[in-house]
Amino acid sequence: MTERLESRAKVTGEARYAFEYPVENVAYAAAVQASIGRGEVTSVDTEAALRLPGVLAVLSCDDAPRLDGDAEGELALFQSRTVSYRGQFIAAVVGETLETAREAARLVQVEYASESPDVRLRADAPGRYRPDTVNPVFPSDTEQGEPDAGFGDSAVRVDVTYTTPAEHNNPMEPHTTLADWGEDGTLTLYDSTQGSSTVQSTIARVFGLDKTRVRVVAPHVGGGFGSKGMPKPNVVLAAMASRAAGRPVKFAVPRQQMFATTGYRTPTIQRLRLGADAEGHLNAILHDVVEQTSTVQEFAEQTATPTRVMYRAPNRRTSHRLVRLDVPTPSWMRAPGETPGMYALESAMDELAAATGIDPIELRIRNDTDRDPESGLPFSSRNLVACLREGADRFGWAGRAPSPGARWEGRKRIGMGVAGSTYPAYMSPNRATARAEPDGTFTVRIAAADIGTGARTALALIAAETLKADLGHVTVEIGDSSFPKATVAGGSSGTASWGTAVVRACEALRGKMNGAVAGGRGGSSPHTENGEVPPEGLEASADTSEELKARDEYARHAFGAQFAEVEVDADTGEVRVRRMLGVFAAGRIINPMAARSQFIGGMTMGIGMALLEESVMDEEFGDFLNRDLAQYHVPACADVRDIDATWLEESDPHLNPMGSKGIGEIGIVGAAAAVGNAVHHATGIRVRDLPITPAKLLHDL
Question: What pTM value is reported for the model?
């Protein structure tokens, strides 16, 4: 067990976040949001705002500087008069103080030519279309065998539709940027981001700069859950405001404005059709998804992709259809695609278990496979069945009531549910450097991001192991685009991707210290005597691009099983999760303390998805109604009574030098289905539209 290396810096306030960097002569920005859901800006009156003492500049589509580079979608800030959704940033004010900027923003008067927005997702929407790919590069549709005929010929059939609402990422630290243009035209950004290298390249492109003229600093980030994986309008706004004011500018998006401008999980409408024989063996799986995107840019959630890898069936089809609406652009939210998709699939599997009279765990075991059902590739490792069995034993599944609604405690109905989990074991090319210092310590640098996941500590453990050094002698520096290029903290790929680059850089450094080049990596170097480091130090670097290209083909995924026990008040319909257990198979666990925290964090978000979280759209005005944490409910301590996570020891030689799979997202996958299945077992009521609220239960209780 290793405590996070930065923990003391965080609790003492030494760790700096984007808004906290001390910069001289700093000013503050405040944004003006569109008050219509669709239309055009006809005029922007800034006279009253500019009269306010302390106002330095006002930006809008009337007078904002043209962006020099290739700005698209949400980043083309103030470049058009078109209003694509309510809440869109249409102007900004820069003031000497934050209070001045916010007051001046209220004084900006905007006139519109307004049209009625279309904001409601419907399965039969006339503009529905098939995207070329779904996030990131998966084919939109897949088909094998004769899915319709296979379903029709099955002895047992389940044909159901599930819906999930829009959900919003709510990291503790809001989206924040401090922008500072140097006299030489360089731009420094202190940004709350999941990828400093990505922000660097994107903002350089938007402003028409060479990448070397943009530096992004983000050593500490207060959460993201995917919403900070791609640069959002706040970064462009801060940079534009700083250039206009001729001073450094800070811009932190207020919580209420985040709901329209920093991304969210798309709502989904999912039709699942499962056909099986009387013994529960699947003959057909059909998973058809409708979800929304914006008119600004396309984002297609890969909702049906986990259905492609979970269970064996000869006849299968998955499809995705998008509807362009007058809404903000959806984006990544923890385990995008897998989270809503596995809620529907694992709920449908529970319904199939009931229809066949087979135990839900046994049904899943009967349909397990050792090969990817669609690609035919062997799994590098797949321990879904082991997770189900281990979890059943730990959770006391054998004592589960034999039928729904059979167990009562006073006026409470008690039920147990189970669901499977899966998430791809992604890995991307990265670069890193490792340096031996003359004092016997080591410094590793990579532009990775620690968004609260413990990445800095995991990388230090990996480096220390490779260098055969004490952890206290290794310093890992991350979160700066001036360090070797790194991919974003997303897709549960950080440790695998960054860690491999760190291993290779450290191996190359050891080779240099031993007077040889390790495995051809790291380039030539002066020889050292007896492993001694020269006075100027010794450094080696690594780039894992070629290594990834040479990997053998396997289906690489993590798997798990979620178990939930709930109580439902028969008089009020209130649902409480009494206890929850997750069992996961995710390769080698680098830091058990941080891993358990990550698993439990994902499971907690799954409870929120099942029972609480819903971004409610006002269909008349085109705006989310619950735009703060008082009305957008997330789980609090009282909602999480007894939650535990464990894992199986899994050795997988086909992954990376550490043998690790990602763990940041699999914890949420399947969690909502486990809770929903437990509610059905407690009450006999199947709620297919999340979240499961008392109002959806009371009528039938």
Answer: 0.96
